[in-house]
Design goal:
Layout: H1 2-22, H2 29-40, H3 43-79
């Protein structure tokens, strides 16, 4: 257990040291914008958006179906 804690402390120290060395460097804004554009137009991002739309539409249909069934049962009970 002690060995794992020592390794964790060493890793944290390395992370902090690396963060201090890199904090004065910032990425070029044109590079960031280009990367954002490429990521947004990627197949993975588009597929994720399509799957999200399908899930939302499916949940909407399930809600409407449940509402219709509930109203149908309510109306049927009042007639009987």
């Amino acid at each position: 257990m002690k060995m794992a804690e020592d390794f964790d402390n060493e890793l944290r120290g390395f992370e902090q040291q690396l963060a201090q060395q890199l904090e004065r460097f910032t990425p070029d804004s044109q590079f960031v914008q280009d990367l954002k554009t490429r990521l947004v137009s990627s197949r993975v991002f588009n597929r994720r958006r399509e799957i999200g739309a399908i899930v939302v539409a499916s949940l909407g249909l399930l809600f409407v179906a449940a509402l219709a069934i509930s109203l149908g049962q309510l109306i049927y009970r009042k007639k009987a």
